[in-house]
Amino acid sequence: MESGYDSVYGHWLSNPECFWAEAAEAVHWFKKWDRVLDASRPPFYRWFSGGSLNSCYNALDLHVETGRADQPALIYDSAVTNSTKVITYRVLLNEVARFAGVLLLHGVRKGDRVIIYMPMVPEAVIAMLACARIGAIHSVVFGGFAANELATRINDARPKVIVSASCCVEVNRVVPYKPLLDQAIELAIAKPAACIILQRPQEQASMTRGRDFDWAQEMAQAKPADCVPVAATDPLYILYTSGTTGLPKGVVRDNGGHLVALKWSMKNVYGVEPGEVFWAASDLGWAVGHSYIVYGPLFHGNTTVLYEGKPVGTPDPGAFWRVISEHDVKVLFTAPTAFRAIKREDPNGEYIRRYDLSRFRMLFLAGERCDPDTLLWAGRQLGVPVIDNWWQTETGWPVGANCAGLGLLPIKPGSCTKPVPGYDVRVLGEDGQEIPFGQIGNIAIKLPLPPGCLPTLWNNDAGYKESYMSTYPGYYQTADAGFKDEDGYLWIMSRTDDIINVAGHRLSTGALEEVLASHTDVAECAVVGAADELKGEIPLGLIVLKTGVGRPHEVITAELIRMVREKIGPVASFKVAAIVKRLPKTRSGKIVRGTIKKIADGLEYRIPPTIDDPAILNEITADLAALGYPRK
Ligand code: COA
Ligand code: AMP
């Protein structure tokens, strides 16, 4: 089929407001917008101002009213507890309405924040949608973060209520969540009025009288609550993501633009029809989980899969194929790292052939750069198109993709294909001028950003301007580097800041360094993302000890590893710290992290002309060699 991409992109480019007004007709409004785009206060653009709607109504009530009541809305498949539960739209609506009633009973009202710190269980989705139903703003915190990270988010969001569970179930262990929650509340300055705790059979949490309430008991007593109309421009959620400092950024998502963009993307980017089963194998704590486990598929009347498990080890590398064949999944979306894990354990795809995947149509990969080997391997083994798509927590939906619903363009492994309609993507040099095809530069998006992208940072308009809008006036700075080729394909190669990507999880090296530097024996340190065959990158710490520290190095490094696990969380996968004599720096004192990374990865590097003492690079090479770097 000839792709309709060019004509749709052209239609958007010729009249963006008309394009988005047409897309907005596909969703339910209590009151339509006054202006499609309010551009009166750049760079704070607002979509569909004057409109009012409800995201939960669009995700559930609308489908129940229009014939999907008995269609599964959510299939919970837990490989770690060996259980499956199918929840129809009717049942999900009832549960959500009831939990919305619970929140109301605890005083949560429109605009109040609710933090959700939960494992991959249906109750987490129910809590998110219940917030949307009453106009409360949810903030889901990924379970792999430690108490300290949770406390930071509590302080920033100041939630009235926190919803959590007694535990999460990892591959070989049960991780109690309640002690982490208690510790986080202890650490936080802002205290929630109440916590609602789901007791899972694997672990009973102890409850604090007067503050903690049992999910099941609360649900049994609550009355269902109705949808509250909210302004299109009102926040739906805050999702914290790593910035370049230790403090995460609170990415805000509005209701109207988000709904319109996600609904549009389900058909046009991901090529799924209402009624089909769509599975994003990610976590609810990430942007992918918000957009494509919960909101996108439900807005579009799909059946979404909530998978609690891993691609390998639960119990084997056939886990994904079992889920696809058992639940008739048409489209799977996951991170390349999941496929690297599967490829490593099942290089010849033997597990794939044990399942009937004849109705499976397409695989989408995102969250990190997809290496061509992994993409080609997946395509060969599965016999379906494998589509790379590039986006960020900030954008909330793809910036660059091969839009399946518009007809696929030829796939170039290593490229995420072309800008999605809505995004005017440019490659800029340091001077802010566009640079020629084929040359690497800073990837920027011409303002305004389309609906669905962050309108600001939570309580931090100045930070929004400073982080994203100040380097290239008139553009959103993605902090990704890459190029466009002569066919207009986008190649996203790396970050331009201190963010590293570990198994599709975004981490700040600055935040890791802050933890390491707080150890009493550490004089200074640097963290870089070293290439890793499975996780893409893993953090590698270089540590300079204070003069006179005589304790054994292995004791100190073990303490540092434990500190990162306790302060940031296991998700950081921080396992290697190298004690070195000195760190290589420029004459102005800046640590040359890029060069350290190249040494760790065994790549050729140019000695930075401003380096203070080039001999240090040889010392670092030797120190890292002793730890087995480069790893390939
Ligand atoms: N609660 C508590 N701990 C958690 C957790 C959670 N929700 N999620 C992960 N962890 C822990 C893990 O148990 C692990 O701990 P360990 O160091 O003691 O083993 C650590 O955090 C790292 O977890 P993870 O990144 O999942 O790595 P892994 O080694 O367990 O598995 C993969 C590797 C590739 C299989 C895994 O990263 C994966 O499935 N990735 C899929 C991609 C994905 O979901 N990306 C999200 C963005 S799209
Ligand atoms: P997150 O905000 O956690 O989704 O991480 C976003 C970052 O992940 C981007 O800025 C990129 O650096 C990287 N990323 C995500 N998807 C891709 C992709 N398809 N290709 C290259 N990099 C990607």
Offer a few descriptive terms.
632 residues, Rossmann fold, 31% helix, alpha/beta, binds coenzyme A, GMP Synthetase, Chain A, domain 3, binds adenosine monophosphate, 7-stranded mixed sheet
Structure description:
With 632 residues, the chain is of the alpha/beta class. The protein has 2 domains: 386 residues, 3-Layer(aba) Sandwich (Rossmann fold); 128 residues, GMP Synthetase, Chain A, domain 3. It is 31% helix and 24% strand. The protein is built from 18 helices and 31 strands. The strands form 10 sheets. The chain has a 7-stranded mixed sheet, sandwiched between helices. A 5-stranded parallel sheet has the order 7-6-8-11-12, with helices on both faces. A hairpin with a 7-residue loop joins strand 1 and strand 2. Helix 9 packs across helix 10. It is globular and about 70 Å long. The mean pLDDT is 96. The site of coenzyme A has 26 residues, from helix 12. Coenzyme A (COA) binds next to helix 12.
Give me the CATH fold name of the largest domain. Answer: Rossmann fold
Question: What is the count of distinct domains?
Answer: 2
The general outline is globular
Count of alpha/pi helices: 18
* Average pLDDT, all residues: 96
**How far is the N terminus from the C terminus?**
41 Å
Q: Identify low-pLDDT runs.
A: none
The proportion of residues forming helix, as a percent range, comes to 25-40%
- CATH class placement of the largest domain: Alpha Beta
Assembly context of the chains: single chain
The major β-sheet equals:
7 strands, mixed
Strand order of the largest sheet: 5-4-17-16-18-19-20
CATH superfamily of the largest domain: ANL, N-terminal domain
Structural class: alpha/beta
